[in-house]
Each structure stands twice: as C-alpha cells, then as structure tokens.
Amino acid sequence: MLPPRQQSRVGGLQTSLSLVSSDPRLSPEEPRSNSDNLHESPTESASSRETWPTGDAIAVKKMENGKAEIDIPEQSVIRRVSSADKISLQDIAREKVDIICEKMHHLPEEFLEELKNGLRVILEGGNGSQHREEFFILQKLVQSRSDLTAKTLIRAHRVQLEILVAINTGIQGFLHPSISLSQTSLIEIFVYKRCRNIACQNQLPADDCTCETCTNNNGFCNLCMCVICSKFDFEVNTCRWIGCDLCSHWTHTDCAIREQLICTGPSVKSGVGPSEMVFRCQACSRTSELLGWVKDVFQHCAPSWDGEALVRELDFVSRIFHGSKDTRGRKLFWKCDDLKGKLNSGKVDAKAACRAILMVFQELEMDSPKSLENAESERLIAPQEACNRIAEVVQEAIRKMEMVADEKMRMFKKARLTLEACDRELADKAREAAELKMDRQKKKSQIEELERIVRLKNAEAEMFQLKANEAKREAERLQRIALAKSDKSEEEYTNNYLKQKLSEAEAEKQYLYEKIKMQESSRVSQSSSGGDPSSMLMYSKIHDLLYNIPPKGDSQSNECHPFRSNP
C-alpha cells in the first residue's frame, strides 16, 4: 500500500473555511458546505467535502510553490455609488467581459469588495436553500456561456475574474482578501487547466496521467482530489484517505465504503487463503490490501494523535473491516470497537489505547504465516492448479514490471518534453534579448540623430538671432536718417513759405503805398479847393494802419502750416 497521505504543500493548518463543490454530477439538493452542524456518517462525511485551511491566526506569507500570498487586508471608508453605475453578481455572470471590466474600472475598491463579500456570504450558505438557489443560478449562468475563454478572460478586471472563478468552482477561497493568485493562474483554473485547490495548483492533468478519470473529469487532480467525489481537503496522516498501490490515485474512505469499493477478496500478495478486505480503485480497477495499509498508518501516525483523533481513526478502521470474513480482519474490528468504547468511557487514555492497537497489529502479523500454513494444510492444491497460480503470479509480476517500465518511459518523455520546452524558452529569450539589443542600438542612433538636429537648429537659431539684431540696428539707423531728412525738409519748406509771404506782404504794402499816394495827391487837389474833413480823417486812419501794422511772418508760420511740432 501507499504510505499515509502526506500534506505536500501546506501543513499545520486547520480546515475551518467551507467551500462549495463545482462538481456538476452532484444534485442541487446535496449539501455542499462543511458546516459544523453536519454529522459524519458512512454515507456522507465531511472528509468528502472541499475545505480551505484558515486557522485562528494565519501566518502563511507565501506558499511553497510561490503562487499565493497572504496579507492583512486594510479597512477603508465606503463611498457612495450612483444606482446607474452599480453592478450586481448577476450582471457579472451574464454580461460580456469587456462591458463589466469597463464599469469596474470606474467603481471604487470599497464597492468591489462589497461584491466579493456578498458572494462569500452566498457560498457560505448561511441562509440555507435561498443561498444555494442563488449560487446555482449564478453557476448556471457562468457555465452556460461560451464566450468565457482564455482569450477573453485575459481582458477581465481582477475582481471580475476572481468572482467568475469562485462562481465556476464554488470555492470562496478565491475571494479571500488575504489570498492573491496571478491572473494567469485564475484563468487556467477557470478553463480547467490548473488544479482549483489553492494549496496544490498543479497543471492538469497532473503528472500527465492518461486514465479515464483524469481525462474525462474536467478540473480533476489525482494528487489531491478524491476519485469518486472529485473533492479535496487537507486531512493528512489519517485513514480518511486510501491510496491505490498501482496508479497512486486517492479516494475518501467514506466514498469507497459508499460505492462498495471496500469489499472482501482474495489475498493481493499470495492469491491464496481465505478472503480478506481489499480496496478496488475506481480509476484503474486494481485491488490493494487494507490490513497492511492500516497497520502502517497507525505505526507511523498514532503516537501523535490525541484521544479524539484516535477515536475517529478507530471508527474508520471499524467501518473498513465491518464486513471482514477472515480471522485477522474480524479480530481487528472487535479490538477497535472495544478500544472506542473504553476511550469514550474514559477507562483508558489515548497512550494506552495506542499501545494496545499497535500490539494487536503485531499479533496479527505473527498470526499471518500460521493462518496461511493452516489454510494450505486444510486444502491440497492440485499440481495443475499450482502451476496455474504460479503462472498468474508470474503474469502479475510481469504486468507490474511493464507498468513500472511504462511509468519510467512516461517520466522520461515528460522530462524530455520539459527539456525541449526549456530549450525553446531559452531560444526565445535569446531572440528577445537580441531584439532588445537591436532596439536599443536603434534608439541610441535615433537619439544621436535627434541631438544632431537639435544642435543644428540651435546654430540656425543663433544665426537668425544675429541677423535679426543687425536688421534691428539697420532699421534704427534708417529711422534716424529719415527723421533728420524730415526735419531738414520741413525747415526748408517753412523758410520758402515765409519768404513767399514776405514778398506778398511787400507787394501788398507797395500797392497800398501807391494807393495812399494817389489818395494824397487827390486830397491835395481837394484841399486846394476846400476839401471834406471826413476825408481827411479817413486818410489819417489809413496812414496809421499802413505804417503802424506789425510784421505777420513769424506769428503765422506755425499757425498756417503746422508741418511738425517741436519735441
């Protein structure tokens, strides 16, 4: 038998956070949360339910595979969001990825956290059938869509992708604020290319298994899930899980009992003697003996169990060997029932019960050869039958050797494929490095060209500035020359104008003088004949006006012709 189931990634954590299964084979009426008020029974046990470890104080900062981190969420103040901008879980499950992604980019982080909290409440199923119906409606909407592919989900908002994965798988761990997976991992989980167990995260099918269970059951991982119910938990070092000796697939003990995969059959080792309790694996249809496996589990793990754990494990052993017909199986069944009663009544403590059950296993091991000898003595085997049985044993050995060879060949092929993938990745990285180097050189040459152009433009700007300064100085010189010529021409024009006015005044004066002389001559002639006194008075006024008038040239030059004003 395989050794007891070990926790390969996360150890020392308790399973208190319940998750909902995404197995489509389960009916809507089947309970899907591992709540405290459920009781274990041979037909339905908490060991067949998916759980995620949370402990009272989570101290895990990064999982061993480096794919999930746990941080302490910060509290924040919730801001108001208008009803037109709000989105619901039904919108996320129904609307296109791009539309919801655009809306989420405009919503505050507090509102998105409220959406995740609402889905977590539904997955916890605190409101019973109402929450289960809401979840089944959301899951049906998501799983009926054909547009949710890896190409479309790559454009999804982070919170949108977490909600879609949680609805599709029924696991609220993807919504937990202290768990963060990469977007690629979430997409692979959604499209069933990666294990939905956050603590496992193996690529599917695990170990490239080609069995019917791993091939036909979407999202099934043979490293951490039950072959029958396709659920996982984190119970280790226990009889809750049974492993197949040949294909290494695991099955819940309760599921195996319920499906009648634990039954009586011929001895797996010798094929002779009375029937014993065996386990028939549903994945490969091969049988494995149970007595030796139970003995190994108790020898390796029983010393670390407390009283409650020991009672639980003894109950599992009692249920496994309840239908046993061989002497050793019946003896083990009776001893387990006896120790359970004594532990429950307090007659013995856990250490004493542990020692007692280990002694029983030693006794059964000592009785094994005797029982085989007695069986051989009671039954004489014909030579032909002995040859047939020997042939069967040889064929079984050859078959196991062939299976081992196939396994080795499969591992070799897997290693070779991995090596080829690494070589391709290395070549791609080298090509990308060369492209980056060429781009860098190209950018460098472009930068140098731009610097040269900038220097040229600076030189041109300096040259144009010098020319502009020279043009400005030339314009100022021409302006001074123009001003000087304008002053000179204005002065010449003024002088010519004054000369003309003076000549006109002289001519007028001469005209008046001649006129006065004529008037004087006429007055003399009249005075001789007794002239008029009024004529004499007019003559004197004209004479005074003519000889006493001031010159008008200087006073009228600037008034009549104001060519310019003195500065």
Automatic annotation (TrEMBL):
Source species taxonomy: Eukaryota, Viridiplantae, Streptophyta, Embryophyta, Tracheophyta
Record's keyword annotation contains Coiled coil: yes
Main localisation: nucleus
Keywords, alphabetical: Coiled coil, Metal-binding, Nucleus, Zinc, Zinc-finger
Sections of the chain in a coiled coil: 419-488
Protein function: Probable transcription factor.
Gene Ontology molecular function, alphabetical: zinc ion binding
Subcellular location, record wording: Nucleus
GO cellular-component term (any): nucleus
DNA-binding is among the record's keywords: no
Protein's recorded name: OBERON-like protein
Listed PANTHER family: PROTEIN OBERON 2, VERNALIZATION-INSENSITIVE PROTEIN 3
Comp. bias intervals (Basic and acidic residues): 26-42
One Pfam family matching this protein: PHD_Oberon
